[in-house]
Amino acid sequence: DAGVIQSPRHEVTEMGQEVTLRCKPISGHDYLFWYRQTMMRGLELLIYFNNNVPIDDSGMPEDRFSAKMPNASFSTLKIQPSEPRDSAVYFCASRTGGYGYTFGSGTRLTVV
Amino acid sequence: DQQVKQNSPSLSVQEGRISILNCDYTNSMFDYFLWYKKYPAEGPTFLISISSIKDKNEDGRFTVFLNKSAKHLSLHIVPSQPGDSAVYFCAASADPGGGADGLTFGKGTHLIIQP
Which residue from B13, B64, B91, B93 lies 20 to 30 Å from A59 (Cα-Cα)? Predict the structure, then answer.
């Protein structure tokens, strides 16, 4: 079990560019969550999926943010266009039953 | 507005002593509470949880206490060890099954264990 795999680990991009963050959940997990961590707001839930279907995207800050889960083993979070205030650590987590959220190691995004 | 609050950004405790981390919440719909531990450059990892039908749950050196009337929970670590130095997040869910609706996290408390 390789855990939740996120890529890239670090991303530095210029303001206005498109950024795509990737996540591979644990096989068999039917829930997938995207979180963002900042000093000001801590860990915020952006969106989550159940069986590849988006259930709640009320945490997505703006229309510049979008997320997809085309199949059970892959999800993306896209920011287009990116802005400096999007700089944060983005975590993906997956879950099946119970309370066992397993988090990935995160992607540290810096927008300059 | 923060529904889960950890008012101490950091806490320093001597090795071998008790560490007490506190958490308050405002949403009366929360039914399940969890603590996560996070090391630098890693994702949070699950530590211990408690359902609202209980007031205490223990797992080895870790005990979580829940006071529903005060909307307060605490994590006790006894005895504290150097490896316990990390950021601890309190989290809550309105799903009694434990978070199918997504967890709401506090901002975290950085625990530092002094040798």
Answer: B64
